[in-house]
Amino acid sequence: MAEGQIVAGLLAPHPPHLVYAENPPQNEPNSEGGWEQLRWGYERLRKSLEDVDYDCIVILSPHWQTYVGTHFLGLERFESLSVDPIFPNLFRFKYDVTVDVELSKAIHDQAKDDGLAVKMMENQDFRIDYGTITSCHMIRPEWDKPIVSISSNRGHAYYSVEVMQEMMIQLGKATRKAILESGKKCVIVASNSLSHRHFTTESEVPEDMSVEHISSHAMHLWDMRMIELMRSGKSQQIVNEMPEFVEQAIAESDGGALTWMLSALDMPDEPAILHGYGTIIGTGNAIMEWPSRNWRENS
Amino acid sequence: MTAQPVKSLVVPAHPHPLLAPEKNEGWGKIREAYDNAREIIEQTDADVLVIYSTLWPSIIGHQIQAHPNPEWVLVDADFHDLGSIPYQFRVDTELAEAWHKANQNRGLESRKVAYDGFPIDVGSVVACKLLNPDNRLPVVICSSNVYANRAETTVLAKSCLDAINQLGRKAVAVSIMSLSNRMFTAPIQPHEDRIHSAKDDEWNLKILEFLGAGRLEDVAQLSRTIHHQIRVQKVVAFKPMWWLSSMNQHRNDLTGEVLGYEPIHGAGAAVVVLDPTSSGQGDKEYDEDSVETFAGDRDVLDEGKDSNLVEIKEQPIHSQHPELWEPTDTNTSVNSQEAPKPVGAYPHARREGNVLYLSGVGPRQPGTSQIPGGAIKDENGKAVDYDIKAQTRAVVSNIEKILNEAGASLENVVDVTTFLIDMDRDFKGYNEVWAETLGAYGPTRTTIAIKALPTPIAVEMKVVARFGDDE
Ligand SMILES: [Fe+2]
């Protein structure tokens, strides 16, 4: 069997606003658009992945929050309605998701061997979190690739960002090893925004772009700093600055997705591509791609 | 008359007592405690369960479940292997609507959610299934706003009481929460369950000692300390005691009973029932403000240090004001030091024979230009919440000062023209204050909606008064 490959790493934010603005048939509410810079960013990302051959999307979303270790979806198919608990007015999405249970189990087993607390999720009534649904839809609206969905272990909540990162670096290594051994080609996705201070009110028309902006200058500076670090391939520095970033920008990367993804990419020195940046209800969001499929050829 | 819940409950959030009471003695005991609590509720004349759930976080204000019959099959994010929880509840939509409106009246951002398949949180589902298995009582469920501090949470309870009062409901208030919420971070066998640490256990026992003695407000005022000591720092802090205590008029002399306390996967699970009957003791050592209305957004970076919202609301907003003028002085003008300065060349009032004509009067305060009830927009021109009742009261008070200066009083007012910038939003509140104040003296009145006023206020009145003897 040929060695597996991570063909790309993605930072792919999941505000339900983006799906709402796209008006796909699966989503019940209707919009007049909005957040175009980000949606054009996703369009560029889709273009960039268009000719890339891959088998599976492996995604970690902070909205499947588990306090007892890291969990993996363990059944082949989930079909249900996802209603965002925070923005139910925008996101009521009928999904039909296929899971690559084999790969899911392989990552689970590898992580277990490496000493992490893990669990397979095998309850057919389980509802997939809206972060996973949103990021996957924006990356691949055809829904023709199976996914591996990994829960966000709240290590940060129990210990500290530092300990969370140790766990996520470990989980990233396990993910990498399992993927390479599986012989599969995968896109790995950190479903995360950057700065995460929301406005606490919403305008009458949620897609009214005249009121959309970053919540504060400090948040803008953090967003630009993180984007610059990504664009210049300074993965280790991102990890080093994560505790400060999480605290000061109230970032949801405290859920571990970004650290896990960088670790699965083996802490790349190569620059990431910025496909788009924009704010959503005050929070900062960047769509970034680490096109790792190209790196080996160049070296 | 102020409403108070007929009973107040603290109940745990995890699904073990519902799905697996037989697997562990402690989980079984919590199930029994839940059953006892259900029987206690059944013995009251309560007609609704009002639930504040720490497991339902919200960002855009406070969300209130308003679907008449929410229905789903819930699976816990962590404990999915314990099984699924199918549910169908009956919601008191009338109370949900009234609470939502009351929230808005008190300046809170509020939303009703009524969507098929909305994910009701596991805590609310477990509590409803165990406290109210046959849907004998309808329920109302409210979210826990991640940015809300003590003041906002206190106001949320007051608006809940407004609604309960208005509809004459007899409510049981339910706070869903763990005490210490630190769980084991790896799977355990049921027989291995215990409170995660001795320190957590000691704090839990201290909280239960207070609650058992009916000292709810003491626990509320210790909330921040408790959160730092025994709570994993989740997005939703230890707020439910703020809500529950405010629901009970910040009382510290309730009659409390602890029905159960056991570990669930390391966290402290307790069932407590509080009754409004006075225990006759429980003096409060110290008081925090009991905020009445909420004045809009606040700085979340001051976590743990509640800003005094009333102060924020009443900060001078000179930058929004047109230049102030000295009142025009002529031989028949009446000008008061006590009234706010004009925004143009005119007097506060002018006397013609025994008729007194007042220039338009707003709520602005003299000297500081503060606006009681808050300005209608912030310095950037962004609309913000304000309290029309407080503004109207301030208008009447300013009118009274000018009348007094002329030797007259509110009794002398014969005709009033009121200008509102938002008739739909404000007429009701304005009308209530009118009835309590000027309305009591019977002047004629005309109320019209206009586009704007020269300062960021929502109400202004034009007054004609008659006083002294006819000439
Ligand atoms: Fe998120």
How would the blueprint of this fold be written?
The complex is a heterodimer of chains A (299) and B (471).
Chain A: E1 5-11, H1 16-22, H2 36-49, E2 56-66, E3 70-73, E4 77-83, E5 92-98, H3 101-113, E6 118-121, H4 130-139, E7 147-153, H5 155-158, H6 161-182, E8 185-190, H7 217-231, H8 235-249, H9 257-264, E9 273-280, E10 283-290, H10 292-298
Parallel strand pairs in A: 1-8, 2-7, 2-8, 3-6
Antiparallel strand pairs in A: 1-10, 4-5, 9-10
Helix pairs in contact in A: 3-6, 6-9, 7-8
Chain B: E1 7-11, H1 16-19, H2 25-42, E2 48-58, E3 62-65, E4 71-74, E5 85-88, H3 93-105, E6 110-113, H4 122-131, E7 139-145, H5 150-167, E8 171-176, H6 198-212, H7 216-221, H8 223-230, H9 240-247, E9 255-264, E10 267-275, H10 309-313, E11 333-334, E12 349-352, E13 355-358, H11 388-405, E14 413-420, H12 423-436, E15 444-449, E16 459-466
Parallel strand pairs in B: 1-8, 2-7, 2-8, 3-6, 14-15
Antiparallel strand pairs in B: 1-10, 4-5, 9-10, 11-12, 12-13, 13-16, 14-16
Bound molecules: fe (ii) ion (FE2).
Residues 14, 62-63, 131, 252 of chain A line the site of fe (ii) ion.
> Structural class given helices, strands, pairing of chain B?
alpha/beta
Tell me the number of structural domains of chain A.
1
Largest sheet descriptor of chain B: 6 strands, mixed
Task: Find the count of extended strands of chain A (DSSP E, 2+ residues).
Answer: 10
Succession of helices and strands of chain B:
EHHEEEEHEHEHEHHHHEEHEEEHEHEE
Q: In which range does the helix fraction of chain B lie?
A: 25-40%
Number of helical segments of chain A?
10
Bin the helical content of chain A: 25-40%
Classified in CATH, the superfamily of the largest domain in chain B is LigB-like
**Low-pLDDT segments, ≥5 res of chain B:** 300-319
Instruction: Assign the CATH topology of chain A.
Output: Protocatechuate 4,5-dioxygenase, Chain B
